[in-house]
Amino acid sequence: MMSQTKKLSIAFYWHMHQPVYQLTPNGDYLMPWVRLHAVKDYLDMALWVKKYNIKLNFNYVPVLLDALIDYENGAHDIHSRLTVTPADELTAEDKIFILNNFFDANYQTMILNNPEYHRLYKLIQSEGTEDISILSNQEYSDLMALFNLVWIDPSFRATNPVLKRLIEKRANYTLEDRKAIIEIHRSIISKIIPTLRRLVKSNKIEITTSPYYHPILPVLLDYKAIRKNYTADDELTDLATESDAELQVEKALDRVEKLIGKRPKGVWCSEQCVSQKTLDLYKKFGVKWSVSDENVLANSIDFEFIHDFKGYLEDPYHLLKSYSYKTGDSDVKMIFRDSTISSLINYEYGQHNPVATANDLYDRIKIIQSKILSSPDKEHLLTIALDGENCWENYINDGNEFLDTLYSLISEDSSLETVLISDYLENCKEHKELKKVVYSKNLQNAFKLWINEPIKDVAWTYLKRANQDYISYSKREPKNPNLEKAHKELLICEGSDWYWWYGEPNSSGRDNLFDFIFRNHIKNMYKFLDLECPSYLDEPLISISTSPSNYPKGLISPKITGKDSITDEDNWINAGCIEIPDGPVLRESKIFDKICFGNDNDYFYLRFYLNKFIKSTQSTMSRTYQMYIYLRKAGRMQALSPIRLINKSENVTPVSMEKFHNEIQVSIRNDELRFLRLAKAIPGDMWVLENYKYMEVAYGEVLDVKIPFNVLGVDLGETLEFLFINANYGMTDFYIPNEMVLSVTRPAEVVTQNH
């Protein structure tokens, strides 16, 4: 007798977002990512509904749609403008730029399988980029052509004979060929918005939006409540941006309605950051629903979602329900995504066979479905919501086999249905009440990826000053026709991307360029109003702070106990400390919440605070967490070896290219210290194990480590440089810090400490 199966509804929800890459409204784009993702992701992701009986949901940030229209109308970025420039007219600076930027593609999936592109890549890797004569003009032409070709989704090859011919040519590309490639890009881009509009009209897809320039609304609406560590003269007690938050939402809804032909009913919270004030604002503008993360739901309903060692939810019931949050005399509906599935698609599946991983995801869906048999309800919604563009370059064939297999399996399963979210919520009769919305139980640490970090806070200070100058001017000159243009520049600077890349812990590999764009948009505000531009806007923010963390206040000689105490007696109170914030990804992948460090005359000390999430789930999750610490004496000329970890993406932070002479590997499983290894560099870029017994280690409430300076080769008066890398399973998650190394100096003479 066959067992009964309850129907499970699935909401695939793909988020599409790029920030402003222009310095001025009509200038070239400084980065090519809108164009490249447009020809690789935006159109083909929607076209799957024509092949299978499925429905899909997409979120488009308005500023991205604006950029697509710009490109359709002839806009250029630096890369595309160089691509249509005759090779014999390229300057030395142009060629240096090409050598350094036209290999921005995934090595495994976009470079390795293209013989000529791979040959050029290996040549530049071995010879470097200093000598521009390393390539002939024809090779520069080929490099530009191949870079732009590999970014085009493979699905377009079968339908475009010109594209197919250009790909098969492989080398010896002419200027006319390169111009044809850029025109193919524009042709694909020109189809995106009309296609989205038609598919919405035929009820195949749903389009939602985010606040116009992708700001973190809880920050704009309630900065004072989530900022910490005020001082009497602090400029950042309040941003006073509540009215801007309203404008960001209203303008977004209006813009998408104009372009797509239907007013969005849902709003995707930027970076899944939501608050009660955010939902109150949505209700004001007629928004019917929003989406956030599993962790937000857990905090909001005081329920712990327990995963087994494979990531399966023990009880998925609460995650499969829609919620009603009362605001005034009506409500805003909320749905919450499955965090494990979004992480698998984003970070893991691309490393493996696409058919096997699609089947794994289908199996996970069926296991979730099997667990609702005992549910008293009839309606259950699994929300699979994540970034819809950045992960696919890590997949074979741009994820086509993965999505083809997955959508096929689901469309052929009569017990599963894909839904448009608004339709599902309007027809659902079983919404659960959501009495509160809690992004994080520790409010002041909740948004540390965007605030409460030295460089991030400097950026917010600059923006607040500019906003105050704008308000003062608008009161004096309310009829100035440039007021709206000036205000637009401030709205752009409220976007999340600038603060995400400033400071710790994230790195784009292009942080300096993001900083340059941010400061120029603040400058634009002053220029539009013919005001004197503050001179501090000429200085890069990333050069302001040379100390990315709280450095030690003095020498320390703590006891190595493994007990969580910071007192004058044990001397950890004077240590330098780095706090590693929570976030949509970091919460589950980071091994430690905080790292403290310091030294005395003879020893280097480290204290690690285990991620509270690991401690709270260690009884139900069997997982290994790893961190690497790389160390070197400043100015050392002896054997150094490179970091031996695998990057998950092609974004290479400069510090990852540095070499070191010692490595410490920490591995923890089930809240137990599995091992702590010490290695040293030897000639030939190799590593060998060192005798770990030189280190004193204690693990209990915290992990304490004590290492003699002599073992690290650091003499009196010399400086030890070091950094930390969260690297589970040997793959880099993030650097701490992300732009530079930390350092401590061994005293030149013996210093007596006062207690």
Considering the chains and any ligands shown, give keywords for the structure.
7-stranded beta/alpha barrel; 755 residues; 5-stranded parallel sheet
Structure commentary:
The protein starts with 7 loop residues before the first strand and ends in a 10-residue tail after the last strand. It is an alpha/beta fold and 755 residues long. The protein has four domains: 8-17 and 210-441, 7-stranded beta/alpha barrel; 73-201, no CATH class; 453-543; 572-745. The radius of gyration is 27 Å and the shape is globular.
Element layout with pairings:
Elements: E1 8-16, H1 33-51, E2 56-60, H2 62-72, H3 78-83, H4 92-101, H5 107-111, H6 115-127, H7 137-150, H8 161-169, H9 175-201, E3 205-208, H10 217-226, H11 242-260, E4 266-268, H12 276-284, E5 289-293, H13 294-301, E6 323-327, E7 330-337, H14 339-348, H15 354-370, E8 381-387, H16 400-411, E9 416-418, H17 421-427, E10 432-433, H18 443-446, H19 454-476, H20 483-493, H21 496-501, H22 511-528, E11 576-579, H23 586-589, E12 592-599, E13 603-610, H24 612-617, E14 624-633, E15 641-642, E16 646-647, E17 659-660, E18 662-669, E19 672-682, E20 686-689, E21 696-699, E22 703-708, E23 719-726, E24 731-732, E25 734-736, E26 742-745
Parallel strand pairs: 1-2, 1-8, 1-9, 2-3, 4-5, 5-7, 6-10, 16-24
Antiparallel strand pairs: 6-7, 11-12, 12-13, 13-22, 14-18, 14-23, 15-17, 18-19, 19-20, 21-22, 23-25, 23-26
Helix pairs in contact: 1-9, 2-9, 7-9, 10-11, 15-16, 19-20, 20-22
